[in-house]
Structures are given as structure tokens and as C-alpha cells.
Amino acid sequence: MRSLPEADPGLPDLRSPIRFLWWNARRQAAPLLTGIGFATLWWLVQALMPAVLGKGIEAVTAKDTSALLRWSAILLGLGLVQAFTGIMRHRMAVYCWLAAAYRTVQLTTRQAARLGATLPKRLSTGEVVSVGNSDIAHIGGSMDILLRGTGSVVAIVTVTVILISTSLQLGLLVLFGVPLMAAAVGPLLRPLHRRQHRHRELTGDLSTRAADIVAGLRVLRGIGGEQVFAERYREESQRVRRAGVRVASVESVLEGAQVVLPGLLIALVTGVGASFAVAGEISTGQLVSFYLYAVFLIGPMRTLTEAADRITKGHVAAGRVIRILSIDPEVTGGTGRSDGGVLRDTFSGVTVQPGSLTALAASTPGDAIAVADRLGRYADGDVTFGATELRTLPLAEVRTRILVADNGARLFNGRLRDELDVRGVATDEQIGEALDVACATDIVEALPDGLDSVVSEGGREFSGGQQQRLRLARALLADPDVLVLVEPTSAVDAHSEARIAERLAKARTGRTTLICTTSPLVLDRADHVIHVQDGRVRAEGTHRELLDGSPEYAATVTRGEE
Predict the structure, then answer these.
(1) What is the distance, to the nearest Å, from the Cα of residue 75 to the centroid of all Cα atoms in its chain?
(2) Tens-of-pLDDT digits for all 562 residues of the chain?
(3) Can you name the residues that pair with 540 across neighbouring β-strands?
(4) How many CA atoms lie within 13 A of 177 on its CB side?
(5) Do residues 452 and 420 make contact, with C-beta atoms less than 8 angstroms apart?
(6) Burial profile 516-546: b = 16 or more Cβ within 10 angstroms, e = fewer
(7) Residue extents of the structural domains in the chain
(8) Whether residue 5 has a cis bond before it, omega within 30° of 0
(9) CATH number of 343-561
(10) Contact between 333 and 398 (Cβ < 8 Å)
């Protein structure tokens, strides 16, 4: 068996959920077929045991000691083979489960990274989280049950052949009884599929609601909205519960069918076999064998019923995964090259000169964000970097050379040092300098282990202003050719903002920097200020020049002080 996960998950077939599952099976054909082989042998060995036991009983009846010893040895050998094949079957089943699950994780993770900013625009957080929480397990489970289910089919066929060869009537009873019982379960599959799909949708919506509440908990507490959102969450949670009960009602019938239907077959086969034994048509040993065969059939028949449930869940899960994998990114890269230079957004007219500290003051926050997204290639637009169109450059190169840092960036779980220095190349001195520029030194000093302190998911232990300063330090440590900062000081006090503006101007001397802000304290430190209104450049100059010469600009940057 190969180690997991594989280096290359491959190119999936996204034409339908069934094709995706079949592609997954083909990607692990060797271990799957090996597991099917072991599962088949495991079931076959068990299928032969009733016949051997029957022969042993006949030897006891005939008082044939040598025959009894011979059949006992054969039974022991079958037991050893069963133990070995059972172990190998289980190992291969677990491997196939993990391989399919890991492969799906790799595909969805890489797709999420490829989509970037496109993903949250097309799918909610809850839908993506639900893929990792449940869908991946269901896809892995479909590979596991494919392995075990195939072996159970072979076992049923083998037992049927043995029974027919011994008693035509009993063999035909099993031959027609098993398909009839499978057909009895069939009508449950469509409503099960429909209800599982609905339950999956509601679960995704609830996960989204929970993520939104957690992300905005501080705001909710500030405006007293905790109770309102708690009630909404409670209502949606109850809808999920009711949908789950509807799924469980069908699944409970399936579970019951796993017991009742094989039990009916056992009773029927045993009753008919007993009548044949009384009539002298079969021996006592054969009657015992028939009973054991009937009991044995419970296992493979339960597996087939389980297969119906798991494959249905896998089908629903594959459909959700395909939905993510089928999304195309809004922006794509090319193969061009650029030596850098002036960064210009044609639509708005914003021009960022190399080596300068430029500030962009927009009349509405949306205009600033739109310009930043186009400059950073998070949204398509006619942007040039030097003499080269930005859309012709590889996205990886754009991300390395042009960094857009906004307040939506997250702090992840892990050491603070690793959160700040994402490339792992900065020295403690360089990290300290970045923290000093961002006025975040006091944050680190207050932590028990300093830079080695572990940060929780989302940096929940930090206030909004502290998170903003840490994000700024992280952006400075990245040291890109072009740094675009969106409202980097909106959550800090005026005293800290003034110090950050002064230190940032010095730290980025000679480096291309664009700051989207309406703060006079920051604008006054910029080499050049651009005023954007209704998505277009309206005026340019220094902060003081624009205050004197542009009433619209003055209204934009002083409205918070009125």
C-alpha cells in the first residue's frame, strides 16, 4: 500500500456524482481490487464452514472418528484463513476509506486555494465547512462499502450454488428470496436520498449562521443583538433537527429491514429444510448446514442493505463536492513577465508611482476596496504593472509581488511567530522592527511566551485593534514589491494611529506603498494623495494641497471630525 496522502490526487471526473465516485474508485483500483479479493475469500471461507460442520455432524452420526478429525482439521484451517483474510480485508477497507477521503480533502483544499476570493462569493462558509465535517467521510465510506459489498454478493451467489447443488427447492428459495428482499428495500432509497440532501443543505446553512455569529460576537454584544441571533440560530437548529428526524425515520426502517428480512429468510429456509429432513430427503447434517447457511446469509444481506445507505450518502456528498470543484475562479493568470514600475488602474485612473508612499482617499469605502481588489488581481480589470498587463502575469507572481492587506485577513491557530513570519525567514530583530512600526510590541510583551505564544483560531484573545496591528506587522514582514493597505489604522486610537503613520512612512521609504484611508493623520504622511469619488480619480496632490483646493476631498477626510 502507498503512503497517504498521495502527491498528486489527479484530475477528477465532475460530470456527475456517480462518475466522481467511479473516478475515485479507479484511482485506487489496485488496493480496491485487492480488498475485494480478500473480502470475497473472507466471505467464501465462512460460506464453506456450514458445509464442513454438516460433514462433521454426519461423521459423528456415523461414528467415523477419522472423518471427524479430518473435517475438524479442515474447519480449523478455514478458521485460520478466515482470520487472515478478515484482517487483510479490514486493512484494505480502511485504506480505501482513507485514500478516498484524503483525495477529496486534497482536491477541495487545492480548489479553495485556487479560487481564493472567489470561493466566499459563490458558497457560504457553512457549505464549505460541511464538506470537511461530513461529506468527506461519506465519500470514504462509499469506497469501504464497495469493497465489502462486492464480497457479500459473491458470498450470496456461492451459498445459492451450494444450496441448489444439495437441494434444488432450497436453492431456488434463496435464489429468489434474496432479490425480492433487496427489491423490498428499493422504494426506501429515493426518499432517503431526497431527505439526506435536504438535511445536508440545512446543516450547511446552520454552519454558516454559526460562523457568522462567532465572527461578529463582539459586535452583537455591543449592540445587544445576542438574544435575537440566538433565537434565529435556535429556530434554524430545530429545522435541522426535524430534517434529521425525517432522515432517521427512513434509516430506522432500513435498520429494521436488516434484521427482519434475513430473519424471514432464515425461518423459511429452516422450516422447509426441516420438512425435507423429516421426509428423509436430506440428512441431519445437511439440515444443520442449511440452518447455518440461512444464519450466515444475515451478514452479507445486512452488508447489502448498508451498502444502499452508504452509497446514497456518498452520492449526496459527491454532489456537494462537485459543486465546489466545478467553480471557476473569477481571475486567472498568464505566463507573462514584468520588471515592475508604475501600477495603474485604468478604470479609476489610480496611478501608484514606484518607490512612493501613495494614499487613496475614497468618498465611499466600496470604491477603495474595488480599486485595491483590481490592483491586487482579486477582481478582473485593466491594470498595468510597468509596461505589462497585470492579467498576463502568473497569479503566483502577482501574489508575491503585490500584497493587498485588508481587515478581512485572519489570524490562524498556531505560534504567533509563525503567524507573523509566514515564510519562516525573518529574524527576531526583523519581527521586532515590524511590530514596532505597527505599534504592536506591547501586545507581544503581554503574552506569557512572547512570540512563541499560541494564538487561537481567529486571534480571539486579541481585541479588534490588536488584531489590526498584528495584521499590519505581518504585511510588513512579507516585504512585497507593492504593499496595498486597506484602512490599516481604522480600529486604533488617534495616538497610536499617528505613531503608526510616522513609522510606516519611514519603514517603507523607497518601497511602493498604497494606503487606502480617510484618516488625516495618515494622509498627511503620504508623498502623494489621490481622491476617488464614484469610482474615478477626482483630484491628486498632497494632503494639504487637496484640503485647500478640493472641497469634495475636504468633506471626505474631515466628516468624521465635524
Answers:
(1) 47
(2) 567 788 888 899 999 999 999 999 999 989 999 999 999 899 888 888 877 887 888 788 788 888 889 988 998 999 999 999 999 999 999 999 999 999 999 999 888 888 887 887 787 776 777 787 788 889 999 998 988 888 888 888 888 788 788 778 777 777 777 677 767 766 766 777 678 778 767 877 777 667 666 666 555 555 656 677 777 778 888 888 888 888 888 878 877 876 787 778 778 877 887 888 788 777 777 777 777 777 777 778 778 878 888 888 898 889 989 999 998 888 888 888 888 899 999 999 999 999 999 999 999 999 999 999 999 998 889 999 998 999 999 988 999 999 999 988 888 889 999 999 988 899 999 999 999 999 999 999 999 999 999 998 888 889 889 999 999 999 999 999 999 999 999 989 999 999 999 999 999 999 999 999 999 999 999 999 999 999 999 999 999 999 999 999 999 998 645 4
(3) 530
(4) 23
(5) no
(6) bbbbbbbbbbbebbbbbbeeebbbbbebeeb
(7) 17-325, 343-561
(8) yes
(9) 3.40.50.300
(10) yes
Residues 6+ apart with CB under 8 A from 349: 536, 537
CB-side neighbour CA atoms (13 Å) of 480: 23
Phi, psi of 491 (to 5 degrees): -110, 10
Query: What whole-number distance in Å separates Cα of residue 312 and Cα of residue 306?
Result: 10
Instruction: Confirm if 363 and 534 have CB atoms less than 8 A apart.
Output: yes
C-alpha cell at position 226? 445576542
CA distances from 534 to 43, 264, 349, 373, 408 (A): 73, 76, 12, 16, 23
The C-alpha cell that represents 251 in the structure block? 434509516
- CA distances for 353 relative to 341, 344, 514, 515, 556, angstroms: 7, 9, 9, 13, 23
How far, in Å, CA of 284 to CA of 273, rounded?
10
CA distance 32 to 144: 9
Residues 6+ apart with CB under 8 A from 446: none
pTM over 0.85: no
Instruction: Using alpha carbons, list the distances in angstroms from residue 510 to 355, 504, 506.
Output: 4, 12, 9
Give CA–CA dist 249/253, Å, rounded. Answer: 7
Report the amino acid identity of residue 109: T
Of the candidates 101, 90, 84, the one whose C-alpha atom is nearest the C-alpha of residue 24 is: 101
CA 533, CA 43: separation in Å to the nearest integer? 75
Bridge partners, 414 (sequence order) = 455
- The answer to whether 512 touches 506, Cβ cutoff 8 Å, is no
> In sequence order, what are the residues at sequence separation of 6 or more whose Cβ sits closer than 8 angstroms to the Cβ of residue 473?
420, 431, 434, 435, 437, 438, 440
Alpha-carbon span 160 to 146, nearest angstrom: 21
- Burial (Cβ within 10 Å: 0-12, 13-18, ≥19) of residue 124: middle
Looking at domain 17-325, what is its CATH homologous superfamily?
A: ABC transporter type 1, transmembrane domain (1.20.1560.10)
Residues 6+ apart with CB under 8 A from 224: none
Separation between Cα atoms, residue 80 and residue 546, nearest integer Å = 89
